[in-house]
């Protein structure tokens, strides 16, 4: 008998459509033979890495022949201090995506349900399917999460409700009161995973982290990342905060040595570089204002954003505009797969990158629309 992978893999694995990242700069250079490329596609920090981080990486490089200290106790201690929780409540992941995966592996199996919102971060759906869960998707409200609909979608089979606050790819956010009220209503035996990957960027005073709600809600898990505002996208480091009992469960499915010593050293250094974070947030603030004013002038609608990216409505030919921009050396992100076919998501870059994007965007729009 020959090997039949379709038979070997469970049906729910066959049905998974792998996550498709944005095009990389090198890929585009190879494809179109372009020299200058700007990438505003993956919500990364547009600033080069912090000098403090580079120094820490170089120092940590001396020890890479050894396994790292398992589960990064020093980083957990430092984060606990920053976030006002106990180190035992924190799990470090190779990116917060790994924490999301650990939660799914721990608590979700075939036949269970996972509740997500339309236009929410696609990884929740993909990970849920990997465990054979049914994905229950509620309709969006003003492009964001409709918490009432999500609550109504919870059944006896629901194991996890995922909420991105703010959300990617829409940039929408929920206020602290909305989250608080939702947590009061959700059955206690359903986990609420609140993804705060863009927490640092939010300026609305009605927004607040839900960390202060952890004590009252043992079913709450919060995830954070170093991939965005801290500028460590390539190093893969993120974390979750929850009850220590829940951490004990996550430890059962965590791969040993899942956080490497370079990433941990870089994260520790990034936490000490307040200037970098401030510069990043200030650049983002200005960049969003600039992009919004340009979209206004072009008569294009956009979704109000609390993040380092913005969703702009281009119309039916959004994919053509995306492809034409690629040829001009500008990478943005199509959102067809997120149910937003008429839109493109643009990450905020450095001022000169934003300007170049707008120049190319105007040119391409004239040609295509
Ligand atoms: C970018 C992003 C993350 C971060 O993923 P990492 O694995 O930490 O790099 C998590 N959630 C959302 C909604 C994101 O957009």
UniProtKB/TrEMBL annotation:
It catalyses: L-histidinol phosphate + 2-oxoglutarate = 3-(imidazol-4-yl)-2-oxopropyl phosphate + L-glutamate. PROSITE patterns: AA_TRANSFER_CLASS_2. Residues 36-354 form the Aminotransferase class I/classII large domain. SUPFAM superfamilies: PLP-dependent transferases. Transmembrane segments: none annotated. It comes from the Bacteria. Gene3D superfamilies: Aspartate Aminotransferase, domain 1, Type I PLP-dependent aspartate aminotransferase-like (Major domain). Its EC number is 2.6.1.9. Its cofactor is pyridoxal 5'-phosphate. It is an enzyme of class 2 (transferase). The modification N6-(pyridoxal phosphate)lysine is found at residue 228. Keywords: Amino-acid biosynthesis, Aminotransferase, Histidine biosynthesis, Pyridoxal phosphate, Transferase. NCBIfam families: hisC (TIGR01141). Homodimer. This is Histidinol-phosphate aminotransferase. It comes from Piscirickettsia litoralis. The gene is hisC.
């Amino acid at each position: 008998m020959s090997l039949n992978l379709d038979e070997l893999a469970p049906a729910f694995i066959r049905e998974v459509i792998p996550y498709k990242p944005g095009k990389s700069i090198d890929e585009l250079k190879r494809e179109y033979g372009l020299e200058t490329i700007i990438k505003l596609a993956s919500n990364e920090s547009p600033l080069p890495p912090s000098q403090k981080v580079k120094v820490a990486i170089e120092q940590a490089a001396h020890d890479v022949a050894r396994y790292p200290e398992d589960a990064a106790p020093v980083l957990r201690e430092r984060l606990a201090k920053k976030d006002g929780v106990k180190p035992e409540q924190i799990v470090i992941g190779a990116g917060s995506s790994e924490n999301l995966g650990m939660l799914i592996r721990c608590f979700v199996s075939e036949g269970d349900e996972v509740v997500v919102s339309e236009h929410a971060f696609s990884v929740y759906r993909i990970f849920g399917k990997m465990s054979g869960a049914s994905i229950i998707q509620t309709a969006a409200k003003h492009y964001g999460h409709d918490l009432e609909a999500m609550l109504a979608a919870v059944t006896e089979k629901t194991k996890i409700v995922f909420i991105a606050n703010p959300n990617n790819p829409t940039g929408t956010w929920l206020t602290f009161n909305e989250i608080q009220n939702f947590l009061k209503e959700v059955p206690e035996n359903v986990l609420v995973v609140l993804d705060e990957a863009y927490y640092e960027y939010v300026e609305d005073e009605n927004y607040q982290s839900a960390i202060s709600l952890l004590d009252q809600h043992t079913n709450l898990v919060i995830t954070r990342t170093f991939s965005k505002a801290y500028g460590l996208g390539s190093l893969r480091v993120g974390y979750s905060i929850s009850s220590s009992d829940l951490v004990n469960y996550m430890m059962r499915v965590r791969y040993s040595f899942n956080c490497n010593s370079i990433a941990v050293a870089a994260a520790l250094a990034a936490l000490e570089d307040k200037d970098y974070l401030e510069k990043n947030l200030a650049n983002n603030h200005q960049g969003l204002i600039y992009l919004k004013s340009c979209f206004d002038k072009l008569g294009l609608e956009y979704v109000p954003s609390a993040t380092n990216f913005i969703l702009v409505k281009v119309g039916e030919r959004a994919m053509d505009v995306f492809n034409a921009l690629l040829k001009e050396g500008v990478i943005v992100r199509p959102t067809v797969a997120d149910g937003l076919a008429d839109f493109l998501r643009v990450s905020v870059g450095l001022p000169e990158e934003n300007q170049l994007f707008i120049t190319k965007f105007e040119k391409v729009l004239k040609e295509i629309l």
